[in-house]
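Dear support,

We are seeing what looks like truncated structure output for some complexes. This example has two components. We would appreciate it if you could run it in full and send us the complete token output so we can diff it against ours.
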Amino acid sequence: MINQLRGDLYAIRHSGPVLLCLAVSVIAAALYTVLQHSLAAGDLGPEAASGVQVLSDALMVSLMGPLLFGALVAQPFETRSVHNSLLASGRGAFVGAKTLLTAAVVTALSLPYGIAVLIGLATEEEFAPAIPTAFSQLLAAGGGVDGGRIGEVLAITVTMAVLTTAKLSVCLPLAFRLQRPLVVMAVGFVWGFLADLIGTTAADVEGLDALVRLTPFAQEHVPTPDSSGGDLAITVAVSLVFIALMGLLAWLLFRRADVK
Amino acid sequence: MSATVLRTRDLTKRYGDHAAVQAMSIRLERGRIYGLIGRNGAGKTTLMRLISGFSIPSSGGIELFGSGTEHPRTEDLARIGTLIESPSLHGGMTARQNMHLHRLLRGVPDPAVEERLLELVGLAGTERKKVRDFSLGMRQRLGIALALVADPELLILDEPVNGLDPQGVVEVRRLVRSLAEERGMTVLISSHNLPELFQTATDYLIVESGELRMTLTLEELEAQTQQFLEVEASDTAALLTAVEEAWPEAEPRVMPGGRVRLPHHAEKAEEVLRALVAADVWPTRLAREGESLESFFLSVVGGETS
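Here is the complete output from our reference environment:
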């Protein structure tokens, strides 16, 4: 698995889509923060808020996450670099490495938003949330930056990032089953927008609500500035277990699947 | 170390009702070059994918390197190198970067292997060129180099000379032969180019409709496809005497009906005619006979000859 991870990390350094996604995430986070300040300062009217939302982590990660699952997991099936990987490490190690790597890279997509929040808070300017995500709420709350605040922002950032990754991790078994990047991306995009809706609906169905709470799709897992450390820890735990389960499902699907 | 590198038992792969490979039992020995011959859809690529672990058999078993198990283990598969269907390349990387990536994936510690293999396949001078700008032939060469990165004991090459110019074909042939002769590598190679395969392989597996129709060595194939001169005369004994006097090493074979076959004189009909007439033996028939590679292959797989 170590060899697979080393190879994948090398490939990422030369992978256009992955570097592009990470760059877009950094630029979007910076722009989103600036535009939220413009909304608060009145440079942008309230009607512009819906346009600014497009740059939020909720939308950007939902768009780029599936793209990364497609590029990192399904693409090797198209390029057939999977052949050497399977001969070298076997199927279990291949799935394990891909699970770890994609989870880490998709998680990294949310981190620029946390850093942008810290920078925004340090300016002590006003920010108006274009959409009530955890990052926007933190910015809008204001209050400058000190050690406790940095810890709070980082904890919420990591929790939000891991939670979002867990929601998108259904792309993992999908990628191993379909082995086609474009299909994985398309299904992942749709899933990214439907997942919360399905989770919220299922939570209202008696008997299903307890089950939904055990998944990252429960509304109560979404971190807010008011979330306690315990809440965040539970969210992270639920998310990591869910990602691991998706990895296990991917392995079960791929264990005896034919490779192109 | 076991001389048997691969043994399959009743290997079968079904897709629904269609059997792409059916009850195929083969055995590959160390240091031999096996030519896999078959028409499109005969099951060549499926067989290669099954051996490499990319496809899962519907039934039957595969034993690699005398492991004693019919379910190949990861450590056994790691001793295989493949180029199946198309090379596994990253178009945005250079040849060297592709080599580096696959060296990392394979856990090969020696970085020198990258340069060595690029030189071996004639791609040493392509440092700045992205693989997406490579010709088909260059991609094939790089694919072969990638298959060799872990110094495999069993090399599986599916149509490796596709897209190569005549010089490239010769180089691949030399490379495959040297790998088998000098390193003891076993090579399973498929090609539509029968004459090319005839010059490369030491053994042949002929498959059709997912079934193994015939296995034979190069010597056996040569015997099957050898051209000869066939002569008939009213006095067969006089004919034989005249031939043996003119060419003591002629090795004539008398066939039913008194036909005499001269295996070394397929191209010497005029010389033979002169010698017979000089010995007062008058042939009633004199013709060059023998099967071509193509007609022999078609006779085995049940196709029509032209």
